[in-house]
């Protein structure tokens, strides 16, 4: 049996804590510069663009290598299929559940009550580009979505950074490589080496995360000012609270059911959460969280299949946002939604969000596509959410990251392959032995 080498890791002690401290300092400095000299702060946008461009450059090849090695390391295609089906069941169950809960909570709390909105020509112009992209996303329908999974060529998928197409090609490639057996062994070893190489490349890129965080915080503060935090405060705070409930209650309960302590688990990923909250991009920490999950006792083949797939199919916090935002906009525009319209909106949101990873203005574009299913809500009302989209994106990115950290743990427990003693050792608590009699 061929053993698959573990990805390159850095020491979990001082270097990781160093990055955590650097990101904290960069956040404070960016906030100070944005308030003290907005003109100068606006010129630091290049730092964030540099960081994100480097991430985009490396994440496609890394995803491909991770998925292929995950499939070849899983052994038989029967095992791969079982893992894939269980992961998709989990993804769809969780995204549907949180979407329904978000709509229910918004209808109960009524975050848009007391506000009124009348669309103007300027508002329509401000959201025109988002609505145009949403029309393309919405008009494709289910068949268009399936066809869009297939790249014109493998090179085009990597060149465009289309995660869904890379995912499709990697699964097909990995299944074929698994099927040909010993003849594919040299290719398997090459991809394993490339996986280690791109993981190391990501480690180098993450080293400049504080620079990207500094630029993101400085330019956002300069553009909106502190007043932006309290504009639409009820909606923004409600969404943050909803994501917090999702993380601590729903995901926390899932971890407890799997025998993992939620607060210890959360602290284990603290530096990754901080980087994601500042850059609003979870791609930056993909190799880091995968390495940590393997260290925690989740089998590598499960991590290699579930985490990359979750980046496109398990956007829990985006589902919460869509549910809240549609009800909020309906309330501020005085639009009454029937149950038929509500169900149509839910179905549309579940479909359009699947291909949304990596799309610029992801949430606004998907929200506009969702509103297209309910024409009575003016698309121009999206302008209300544009000013706070970056702030909302903080909770959205952290919530999506949390969901994709917990999903492999759940699937591993479902498979009966989660090493709970290893997890207890890594997280620093006494293991439970109540299942040792099995």
UniProtKB/TrEMBL annotation:
UniProt entry tagged with the keyword Membrane: yes
GO biological process: L-aspartate transmembrane transport
One cellular component (GO) term of this entry: plasma membrane
Record's bilayer topology term: Multi-pass membrane protein
Pfam assignment, any one: SDF
Keyword Hydrolase assigned: no
A GO MF term: malate:proton symporter activity
Keywords, sorted A to Z: Cell membrane, Membrane, Symport, Transmembrane, Transmembrane helix, Transport
TM helices/strands, residue ranges: 51-75, 87-109, 163-181, 202-225, 237-260, 318-339, 359-388
Location within or outside the cell: Cell inner membrane
Predominant subcellular localization, coarse grouping: membrane
Entry's family note: Belongs to the dicarboxylate/amino acid:cation symporter (DAACS) (TC 2.A.23) family.
Name the UniProt record assigns to this protein: C4-dicarboxylate transporter DctA
Native organism: Acetobacter oeni
Designated gene of the protein: dctA_1
